[in-house]
Amino acid sequence: MKACTPTLAPAPLAIDNLQVDYRQRRVLQGLTLPPLAPGRLLALVGPNGAGKSTLLRALSGLVAARGQVRFGASELLTLPAAQRARQVAFMPQLGAAGGSLTVLEATLVAMHGLATASPARAMQALEQLGMAPLAMQPLAHLSGGQRQMAALAQVMVRDCPIVLLDEPVSALDLAHQWQVMQTVQQLAHAGRIVIVVLHDLSLAAQWADDIALLQAGRLCAFGPPQQTITPERLRAAYGVNARVRSCEQGRLFVLVDGPAGPHPQPPVQTAWSG
Fold it and tell me: Which CATH number fits domain 13-259: 3.40.50.300, 3.90.230.10, 3.60.15.10, 3.90.226.10?
């Protein structure tokens, strides 16, 4: 991997009319998001098949896409792969078993080409995630949750200005979920653009600055959690009757009471109006 500089995102990320086709089916239907500002954590939520993972894979160059993705003076969709890798770090849902590489070796490989590459820097990232005791363990010997933590360490040490994380807490217990989300929030608030796919709406509401609610490859809602996670929008996007409540600390949580019957048409937002 090449060095990912600068660490801080110099400009917003603008996604306009993004289209992705897969197996003769349009997965992203001309998706447009408002400019994503550095320093904010965006959570992508929505039902299965809404296009959340596809969006991350398109931004990272793993699937072909049409439209515009502007980052500063660059058009990411047309950047050569090596140049895009300097700007975008992507963590898939569950990393490969990793063969015989140890956790530390895999983290050092992720730092290849970085001026700051060193075992000390790799260990710092592993310690931050509580993975230092497993540094010399082969990736193949780790549990799924431990591999997720190792993969996040590999993303952290690359210091890319755009960080894309696909369900980084799906295999983690409650304590490690909190640890990972705190780290992800810190990555964003240090000045990066961070986009994370989450299925747990309460977790998204607790940690994200903004939430993008997707359904059928389209944007249904975008904004702070209090504006995007509402019973009406959950019914439209997920087809459920749900209650949205606040705890004593003002954090939102969602209680699902059951199916709402056939899915109504979601309130499609074809363009961002501010």
Answer: 3.40.50.300
